[in-house]
Amino acid sequence: MIRPGRRLSPLVPMTLAAALAGCAGSAGTTTPRPAPGTSGAPREVNIIARDYRFDPDPVDLAPGETVVLHLINGGLEVHEFVIGDDSVQAAWEAAEAATAGAPPGPTSIVSVAPESAGLRVVLRSGERADVRWTVPPDPSSLVVGCHIPEHWAKGMRAAVRILAPGG
Length: 167
Prior knowledge:
about 15% helix, alpha+beta, 4-stranded mixed beta sheet
């Protein structure tokens, strides 16, 4: 607070002007859309599980592209990364529901039929896995989810945003 009769230091207006000038230059700047990966040059995609969300949300994927998924559990609990459509998510939700009430710790070994499996990776807190994966030709119905008991119900899912060909 400035008291009546007191003068501002000459540094205050200069500092304010410099701060505003720095902000003005960033107006309209956006992150460029990623270019889809190829089998020879896969695009790297980071997905971080937190307690109870995924970052980023949505996850950008292009039809048929090859990616290297860097899956990171940045939460305090065990999390899984299930990538698939609604039927895949429902299959893993049902499989994991059978483990509800189990003691804390790593998730029990559960499985689903291969045609319902999608892509699934389970990680403990602080773990990372790198997975090379080719996105299906029509990824429009894909979702990233976690089905450790109660995680899906708490909203632990991320949408997939489709990149147009060429980014």
